[in-house]
Amino acid sequence: MGDMFRSEQMVLAQLFIQPEAAYFAISELGESGIVQFRDLNENVNVFQRKFVNEVRRCDEMERKLRYIEAEVKKDNISIPDQQDLPKAPNPREIIDLEAHLEKTEGDIKELTESAVNLKSNYLELTELKHVLEKTQPFFNEQDEANGMDSAHKALITEDTQNISIRGRLGFVAGVINRERVPGFERMLWRISRGNVFLRQVEIEKPLEDPATGNEIHKTVFVAFFQGEQLKTRIKKVCAGFHASLYTCPSNFQERSEMLKGVCTRLEDLNLVLNQTQDHRQRVLVSVAKELQNWSVMVSKMKAIYHTLNFFNMDVTKKCLIGECWVSNKDIPIVQKALSDGSTASGSSIPSFLNVINTNEMPPTFNRTNRFTKGFQNLIDSYGMASYREANPALYTIITFPFLFAVMFGDLGHAIIMACFGGYLVLAEKKIQRKKITSEIFSIFFAGRYIILLMGFFSMYTGFVYNDIFSKSMNIFGSSWFVNLNEEEALETDELSLDPRFDYEGTPYFIGLDPAWQLAKNKIIFLNSFKMKLSIIIGVIHMIFGVCVSVVNFVHFRKYSSIILEFLPQILLLCFLFLWMVVMMFMKWIWYSCDKANPIEYGSSCAPSVLIYFINMMLFKEQEPTPGCNMYMFDGQAQLQQILVYLSLICIPVLLLGKPFYIKFTRKSKPHVRSNGDVNQGMELGEYPEAQQNTSGAAHHDEDEEEEEPMSEIFIHQAIHTIEYVLSTISHTASYLRLWALSLAHAQLSEVLWNMIFQMGLKNSSYVGAVLAFVFFAVWAAFTIAILVLMEGLSAFLHTLRLHWVEFMSKFYAGLGYPFQPFSFKAILEEEGGGEE
Asked: Cβ-count burial of 746 within 10 angstroms (0-12 exposed, 13-18 middle, 19+ buried)?
């Protein structure tokens, strides 16, 4: 957990690797995923790099794998997930893998082409069969002389009797796509001027396209005509509309014999097709078992050669030189990976690592686990932390769900949210194996621990608010009593609670007294309570954010900023707004309805803290209430004036302190010019300690700061001062959203209960029992959809804003860039997400 306070210390390292060991060393580093390589060949064309041919070979293997995967999925064969993914193959194994993939692709292509040819023949025979069967009624009159039975004679239509003249009419029979039939009819009418007689019958069962496997709907047609010239025109139209023409005998006997032959050939071809499909299925099933392993191996191999293209070759061409960012803690792991790579390659010359000093800003690397990753993503979404800057994610783990819970405080809704988050956490491995592609569910799953904590914290605040589905629980016994007789109590729907007459003086053990649920002045009480609570929480949260800035100043050795920035900021915040919080507690403690208290400290004399604060800022006297003191204690007016004057003094210190300090220190500090390190970091040596690297970065920042003109420094400091002074007011007011959303959530929950669920409880008959189930279902649906999902999302967004703007603006710069290590796991996850 110590790594969560700030980002890891990073160093820039040079890797000197023997060419024969480079592949194995990079493979080991990819498995560990702890280094971010820098491209030393940015100005070199991609096609002129050393390992471009190897990358092309990997691209070709990926193309073959994509083709194989497409064929496997086309046959609806599931690709099993491998638990243990293989490592990158050895260079000697690459040739065997490439040959195996080529052979597999050739076999599948051969099987596919054979299946397509067989299916094409099957389609042609099927169409011919339909032509022979469907055109039977069109030739009834012509077959009458050959002894047709009475059933065929009854099917002779009037149209065929009028146009059929033996030996003089020709015909063309075929099959055409159903959607092209209207255009086909119009074209035949135009080219023949109405001298073509077209008959058509739809094929009821859809046919299969041999190439794609999609269903196609076709229609059988017969076109009767007279003359060879018209026949040529009809055939050209059929060719233009992609109609398939088939030879159809005009004699009934010949058609019957031909139909029998076609049926026999179809049966034989169907048998061959089934055998071919079974063989193809067996081949694809065996391929599917190894497909994921092949894909992983090729992806890792391609990533290795792509990374090797970042390396430079030394002058002797016997060593590859690369640069990478690596965490100081992970340097022994990198050295071990280099040693394992040399051992695997059998190289006698060891590879080694050399840490070099640099003034370049390192990347930001925050080491996370399953629990902290979600909270770190919330911070990184605002802006990546500057290098070694204080990381807000550690504090967000507690403050984020707590502020959410203040707005979402309902025990019943919180239990639903906690159960959902708990399910996602307990079943996370099972869910990960399913690889659900829904974007919304992926967002919920990524924040499962955030949802779980938000549910737990909301259960606590809901218990404190004594609010469960807009109802209260009387666990410890109420301290209020009804100061009415039985008749008056039954006639009254709502009671107005007055602590002078209806309160025993013993407070409820924890949380809100359940008697307030029936009180007419409940909203007035909760408004005051939750508004003050939100101000108290907001001021404490902002003070904590200002205090965190001290951690940054100490780490980066900007000790002057502690006096010239931190102290004025924290004093300004405390003298004004923390004093307002103190007055709230003083009012709660000193003023009560206890008859033993003096009259000046009774509930009727309780002052308005907001009026006190406004009068303090305006230097205005408050008009006293008759019989009450003007202030809570003697000397309060003088103390408030002193606090305002001191807070006003903080503003010029904040405005001019840092610019004048920079101006005076520039004159006293000589400017030293340096040509840099003579060895340019090429000598071997131990990696530097944290102090050396930090001081180097600090000197670099000071040099940049000295180069900035004084006029810009004054302008920037003025902007920063104005922004902070105004933000103390606006940010404090912004925390009132805790009160507003909490009150809105409670009122909406109460409205849903009274307007929907209670309607089913009003009827005391048997019908009411049925209505209770119906209205409960409606109430439950609205509760989950509106109060849990929509209100939960609203509270989440407001909590996010309070952290990004009100809290993190006090100390967080967020000007860094992320550490993106070379990791096979990240590459495979990205490829898997892209494919999905």
From this structure: buried
Cβ contacts of 654 within 8 Å, gap of 6 or more:
564, 565, 568, 569, 572, 721, 724, 725
Quick check: helix, strand or coil at residue 135? coil
Note the pLDDT tens digit of each residue in 2-57. Answer: 567 889 999 999 999 988 889 999 999 999 999 999 998 888 888 888 889 999 99
Three-state DSSP at 6 gives: strand
Q: Which long-range contacts (CB under 8 A, 24 or more apart) does 382-386 make?
A: 382/804, 382/808, 382/812, 382/814, 383/812, 383/813, 383/814, 383/815, 384/814, 384/815, 384/816, 384/817, 384/818, 385/6, 385/7, 385/812, 385/813, 385/814, 385/816, 386/361, 386/813, 386/814, 386/815, 386/816
Alpha helices in 510-622 (DSSP H): 522-555, 559-561, 567-573, 579-590, 609-618
User: Rounded distance, CA 234 to CA 191, Å?
Assistant: 8
pLDDT classification of 695: cutoffs 50, 70, 90 = very low
pTM of the model: 0.80
Q: In sequence order, which residues have a C-beta less than 8 Å from that of residue 396 and are 6 or more positions away?
A: 375, 378, 379, 803
Cβ–Cβ < 8 Å for 372, 4: yes
Question: Within 13 Å, how many C-alpha atoms sit on residue 626's CB side?
Answer: 0
Please name which of 421, 525, 417, 555 lies closest in space to residue 465, comparing C-alpha atoms.
525
Does residue 627 surpass a pLDDT of 80? no
- Looking at this protein, which amino acid is placed at residue 332? P
List, in order of start, the domains of the chain with CATH numbers: 7-108+278-356 (no CATH), 117-266 (3.30.70.2750), 370-673+687-810 (no CATH)
* φ and ψ at residue 575, rounded to 5 degrees: -65, -30
Contacts 24+ apart (CB under 8 A), 776-785: 779/752, 779/753, 782/752, 782/756, 783/413, 783/469, 783/749, 783/752, 784/416
Cβ-Cβ contacts under 8 Å for 171 (sequence gap 6 or more): 138, 222, 223, 224, 225, 248, 250
What average pLDDT does this structure show over 438-463? 94
Angle, CA of 49, 52 and 54, to the nearest 5°: 140
User: Both tokens of residue 433?
Assistant: 């194996």
Q: How far apart are CA 551 and CA 559, in angstroms?
A: 10
The whole-angstrom separation of Cα 745 and Cα 795 is 10
Q: Taking a C-beta distance cutoff of 8 angstroms, is the pair 37, 310 a contact?
A: yes
Confidence band, pLDDT 50/70/90 cuts, at residue 505: low
Structure tokens at 5: 């306070």
Please say whether the beta carbons of 439 and 471 come within 8 A: no
Q: What is the mean pLDDT of the chain?
A: 85
Q: What is the CA radius of gyration of the chain?
A: 42
Instruction: Round to whole Å and give the CA distance between 92 and 20.
Output: 12
- The answer to whether the beta carbons of residues 391 and 5 sit under 8 Å apart is yes
User: Token pair for residue 285?
Assistant: 């099933």
